Amino acid sequence: MDDAQNLNLSAPVPPTAPPAVVGGKTAISEQAVAKVAAIAARSVDGVYALGTGSGRALGAVRDAVGASSATQGVHVEVGETEVAVDVTLVAVYGTPLTRIADNVRAAVYSAVESLVGLRVVEVNVDVNDVQIPGAAEGRADKPGSVSEPAERKS
């Protein structure tokens, strides 16, 4: 038998690797990058919330009407191959603020570079406020507030 007769033409052909460079362009929106960065930042221990006080208040209104912003507190500038990220956050009291900022920076770098594929040139972290445990935001502590039961008159 010659070599041509020994070939098994019904055997599956292994897939070939795609060429190193293929045609076309990929555009990744600022919104997409900001969501990835926001999710990464929120996952860090010691981060209470993202955004400023007024931004969180506006976010509460958006949540109430079902139009929540997943990118609150995050601003990105996206280039063709690079991205810069600004994160504004409220920290939980008791955790060193520089440690929170460093951990947020590391989480955002890692998530954006691995999930988005862009090189992160900088992550600026602005610790805007500190949340004190037991002082829940939006909790009505004033007498006569809606969350407090009304006094019964005898």
Features:
alpha+beta, 4-stranded mixed beta sheet, 21% strand, 32% helix, 154 residues
Give a verbal description of the structure.
There is one protein chain. Helix 4 (97-116) links the parallel strand 3 and strand 4. The chain has 4 helices and 4 strands. The chain is 32% helix and 21% strand. By secondary structure, it is an alpha+beta fold. Strands 1, 2, 3 and 4 form a 4-stranded mixed sheet that branches. The termini are far apart. Residues 55-63 and 138-154 have low confidence and may be disordered.
Sum this structure up briefly:
The chain is built from four helices and four strands. With 154 residues, it is of the alpha+beta class.
Are there runs of 5+ residues with pLDDT below 50, and where? 55-63, 138-154
Fraction of residues in helices?
A: 25-40%
C-alpha geometry: elongated
Mean pLDDT: 79
Strand pairing plus helix content: what structural class? alpha+beta
Radius of gyration: 25 Å
Determine the N-to-C terminus distance: 109 Å
How many H/I helices? 4
Strand portion, in percent? 15-25%
The protein's oligomeric status is single chain
β-strand number: 4
Order of secondary-structure elements: HHEHEEHE
